[in-house]
Amino acid sequence: MRTRKLSRWFLFSESSFVYLFLYAPIVILVIYSFNSSRYAIWEGFSWKWYEILLKDQLILRSLKNTLIVALTATIASTVVGTIAALGMQRFEFRGKGVLDGLFYLPVIIPEIVMAASLVIFFGFIRFKLGLATVILAHIAFCISYVIIVVRARLEGFDRTLEEASMDLGANELQTFFRVTLPVIAPGIISGALLAFTISIDDYIITSFVAGVGSTTLPLQIYSMVKTKVTPEINAISTLLLIPTILLIVISDRLQREEK
Amino acid sequence: MSEALIRVFQRFPSLRPYALIFLALAILTVFFFFPLLIMLVYSFAQKGTYGLIKPIDDLGQYLTSFEWLSNYVRSFEPIYLEIYARSLWMAVITTLLCLVIGYPIAYYISLKVKPSWKNTLLTLVVVPFWTSFLIRTYAWIVILRSEGLINHGLIALGWIDAPIETLLYSEFAVMLGLVYGELPFMILPLYASIEKLDTALLEAASDLGANAFWTFVKVTIPATLPGILAGVILVFIPTIGAFITPDLLGGAKSILVGNLVQNQFMIARDKPFGSAICFGLAAFVLVLLFFYARYSTRKEKAIFV
């Protein structure tokens, strides 16, 4: 009995340490974004890094680019990925096993390999690097993630709902838009959220295929971090946590509704 | 238009799945498979000027002289072998650390807390995944740098006189950053696997006289092996190709394969050599996955038989 108590105590404290390890750096970042000193010593509360940030034209432009890329890539990859997921989940057909593997490859292959091959490819077809190449690359790597997430959600889909709709006289398109789509919507939204998160955060592929004037926020932050650590980055990081928290709340709600 | 399409698919139902998959496959073919193919061709070429490849005058001579293999031969030079060895070492240690740190918490969440708490605790593990990887890595710079939190704290406590410079830009920092970034990917599959563990087995083992340690070694670990392997794969693969963490937290001495590739493309402008290294990396990862896939299907069969 004593060992059981001991192991329970160990598991509890180990888990607490892991949570501390996971969250402490993020919390420290938020706290320091309000530090009036640029060093680790606390010298009083200040909004000044946020003020500097909001006047920084480079940051604002890269934020705009990031949003353009992420929104376009999310919409395109979600539509294309969802349709493909339906095809993969609903039917048995020749070559399905091979396709299964092919759709997984972009997730499995190290990102740096995909980044390198894309920059060679755009050079090969003489396509000028810019915002367009970033968007195309993001669409390409987000599709696989959308397919995986949407397929996972489709697994629990009750096909009798569709049969009922058809029996009641709806055609296939009506059935799809009135029955299937609303039911699988939470899965599609989580796929879209994943695509959005991955796109907005991507550094490696973007850094290879971005041209002049198509700097995104991760690229901007990266070059700032490489040159010197400024509390301005703490401020951007803190602001970027807000949409993250919103996304988590939304996806949590969706999961609850599904149950 | 849509009516006509519906009629076509009603006539040829076997076309339906292909029609649905077509667009995704087309995009991936153009922007994923085709680029990989071009990169494969590039890996057999030679570096030219302005980051281009050198034109080949005499293809027959090029092929017979085995010049086309030179990038692959070069990739086995000692300085590069050292980088692969370091990448492998970092990936192995990171994976082991994630496993050792992740197993107890996965065990705790799946078996020791009230069911109503499980989802919340699990979500808390996943939240960092939704947070920008770049920002999470940057946070460690704030903590570890010489004007950072740890050094200032230690100086304030009077434990050290001058900041420890080696906290940041060291292998230690890279490993810390990698474990921090990948830990959620270890905990999730472990949780899924331990959750399915039949606790009657644990009781049986202890009834038969096994103590807690032997029950864990002989029953719990084998029963959760699929989760362990899935976690190992999920952590090991991104780590071996890691780029951001070694670049930001490591010094010049902690270059890993990912940084080597980036240097070839962005600084040395030797795309053919960079391509050859990429293919080596991709091949290594695919071989690992092949063995993993073989193991996991055999395991599933074993459960059903």
Provide a concise account of the structure shown.
The complex is a heterodimer of chains A (259) and B (305). With 259 residues, chain A is mostly helical.
Could you list some keywords that capture this structure?
heterodimer; A: 259 residues; mainly alpha; 11 helices; 80% helix; B: 305 residues; 15 helices
Please give the largest β-sheet of chain B: none
Flag low-confidence runs of chain B.
none
The chain-level structural class of chain A is mainly alpha
Count of separate DSSP helical elements of chain B: 15
Sum up the overall morphology of chain B in one term: globular
Helix content of chain B: over 70%
Distance between the terminal alpha carbons of chain A, to the nearest Å? 38 Å
Order of helices and strands of chain A: HHHHHHHHHHH
Mean of pLDDT of chain A:
87
Low-confidence segments of chain A: none
Q: Assembly type of the shown chains?
A: heterodimer
Element layout with pairings:
The complex is a heterodimer of chains A (259) and B (305).
Chain A: H1 2-32, H2 48-55, H3 57-90, H4 96-108, H5 111-124, H6 131-154, H7 160-167, H8 172-201, H9 204-209, H10 217-227, H11 231-258
Helix pairs in contact in A: 1-11, 2-11, 3-6, 3-8, 3-10, 4-6, 6-8, 7-8, 8-11
Chain B: H1 2-11, H2 16-42, H3 59-64, H4 70-74, H5 78-112, H6 115-130, H7 133-144, H8 149-157, H9 171-195, H10 199-207, H11 212-223, H12 225-240, H13 244-249, H14 257-266, H15 271-304
Helix pairs in contact in B: 5-9, 5-12, 6-9, 7-9, 9-12, 10-11, 12-15, 14-15
